[in-house]
Amino acid sequence: MFAVDPVNHLNDEQIQHKINQKTKPLGALGSLESLAKQIAQVQLTEPFNNRQKLAINQPAMLVFAGDHGIANHGVSIAPSAVTQQMVNNFASGGAAINVFCRQMGLNLEVIDCGMLTPSDHPKVTDHRLGAGTQAIHQKQAMDLLAVKDGFSFANDLVQRHFDSGCNLIALGEMGIGNTSSAAAIMAAMLKLDVKECVGRGTGIDDESFALKRELLTVAMNLHRDKIHDPVNVLACLGGFEIVQMTGAILAASEKKMLVVIDGFIATAAALVAVALHPSARDYLIFAHQSDEQGHPKMLQALDAKPLLSLGLRLGEGTGAALSLPMIQAAVNFYNDMASFDKAGVSNVV
């Protein structure tokens, strides 16, 4: 469904030279330099023009919501009803992600991918694939048609933002039980034991943590014969919101948009997207390392160095929103910082 081209590396030497000639010691801006180079690789066309500028236009935060059958089996501190309650909070402007999006100038859209009960709020986009997934330790989460439909919904969503002039999307999520789904996806994609992938989510106690590991071990054994390709991993273990985040990554990468990945759940979607189309990795910016146990290994598998490490474990896209000033700083220093020659400063390279 998607055709993702790798970024153009023909300008790499000129981009790096421009960064090196800024009035600073080599590498003195640390991760902002590699970030600026990545953005330039995505946005600059051949032939290289030293005056061409980078830009972040109409950035959008897309928060995908869905419910999970496994949430009814004691793996979370909250009932599934909280998913819809928080979605209505997002739509009304009262959550952390709303505060940060207003501060950072992000356009927020909330998408119902398949909550148990639909939201009647007019600001919630209806891309429902069902009323929550099946419990993954008992059945497949969804059928393959739901994965296909989820990708189609995501493509339409990203196309709409692209047509409005957006060239960067950030991904967030809401779904009680979705750390269970993400941990199962991580175990399947990285071929790891469940114990290395499962964390405490929103803060479950020892008894619930042990149960969560037990149920996910059952899930992995139940679906073992089917989870050898990324699409079947989504169908067997995924959430409706994770499916649509995966599709959004691929749709945006196809359009050469930057994609900011939030925490553990969004990174699970990134694992699947990159497995389907390895070139999608070129377009991904990893916002932060979350406090969820498995996240560092996920990031390592994707060769990702997150911009922030704040001990976050909220989801919603909060870490992705908070990373936007860093992304804008990389763009601005590339565009506006003087070179040694222009500033009349002795070159310290």
TrEMBL record:
InterPro entries reported for this sequence: Nict_dMeBzImd_PRibTrfase (IPR003200), Nict_dMeBzImd_PRibTrfase_bact (IPR017846), Nict_dMeBzImd_PRibTrfase_N (IPR023195), Nict_dMeBzImd_PRibTrfase_sf (IPR036087)
Q: In which pathway does it act?
A: Nucleoside biosynthesis; alpha-ribazole biosynthesis; alpha-ribazole from 5,6-dimethylbenzimidazole: step 1/2
Q: Which Pfam families match?
A: DBI_PRT (PF02277)
Question: Under which EC number(s) is this enzyme classified?
Answer: 2.4.2.21
Keyword Flavoprotein appears in the UniProt entry:
no
NCBIfam families in alphabetical order: cobT_DBIPRT, PRK00105.1
UniProt-recorded name of the protein? Nicotinate-nucleotide--dimethylbenzimidazole phosphoribosyltransferase
Species in which this protein is naturally found? Shewanella japonica
